[in-house]
Amino acid sequence: MKGNPEVIAALNSLLTGELSAMDQYFVHAHMYEDWGFDELYTRILHESDDEKAHAAKLVQRILFLEGTPDVASREALNIGKDVEEMLKNDLNYEYAVADHLREVIALCEAKEDFQTREILEVLLDDTESDHMYWLEKQIRLIDRVGLQNYLQTKM
Predict the structure, then answer these.
(1) I need a surface site. Which of 5, 75, 93, 98 has the fewest CB within 10 A?
(2) Using an 8 Å Cβ cutoff, are 8 and 111 in contact?
(3) Backbone phi, psi, residue 109, to 5°
C-alpha cells in the first residue's frame, strides 16, 4: 500500500526518536548496574526494550506504506551524571516523544491515514501511562524522601 510521503517522513522522524531513546535508556541502565542500583537497572533496561518494540512497530508500518525505514539516524543523547539527572533526562525525552507523537497523530488524521493514527495512539498511551508516569513517580519519590533514602531502596 503506497503511503503518504509526509506520513512516511514523520514516521521516520519518530523512529529516530525511539531508537535514540532506546540508546539513552540502554546506557543509563548499564550505569545503574555498574553503580549497584539493580532495581533501576532492571526497570530502565525494560524501558530500552519497550523503545525497541516501539521502533519495530514503526519499521513495520513504514515498510507496509512502501517507505524505507531510517534506522541509522539518532538524536543527541542526554546521558546523566547521577541518578536524579538521568531520571530527569529520560523524562524530558519522554515528554518530547509524546509531543512528537501527538503532532504525527494530527498529521495522520489530516491525511486520512487512520490505521497509522491508531498505531501511534497505542504508542502514545504506552509513553504516557507507563514510561512518563513511572519516571514522574521516581522524581516525586526523590523529592519526598530525599535522594539518599531513594537510592537505598534501589540497590
Answers:
(1) 5
(2) no
(3) -60, -45
Residues 35 and 151: their CA atoms lie apart, in Å, by: 10
Q: What is the model's pLDDT at position 1?
A: 80
The three-class DSSP label of residue 91 is helix
Tell how many helices (H) and how many strands (E) occur in the chain. 6, 0
CB atoms inside a 10 Å sphere around CB 69? 18
- State how far the Cα of 145 lies from the Cα of 135, in Å rounded to an integer: 16
Q: What does pLDDT average to in each consecutive run of 10 residues of the chain (155 residues)?
A: 95 98 98 98 97 98 98 97 98 96 98 98 94 97 98 96
- Is residue 120 within 8 Å of residue 99, measured between CB atoms? no
Asked if 32 and 20 touch (Cβ cutoff 8 Å), the reply is: no
pTM for the whole structure: 0.95
How far is Cα 49 from Cα 61, in angstroms, rounded to an integer?
19
Rounded Cα gap, residues 16 and 106, in angstroms: 19
Whether the CB-CB separation of 134 and 17 falls below 8 Å is answered with no
Which set of grid coordinates corresponds to residue 33? 548496574
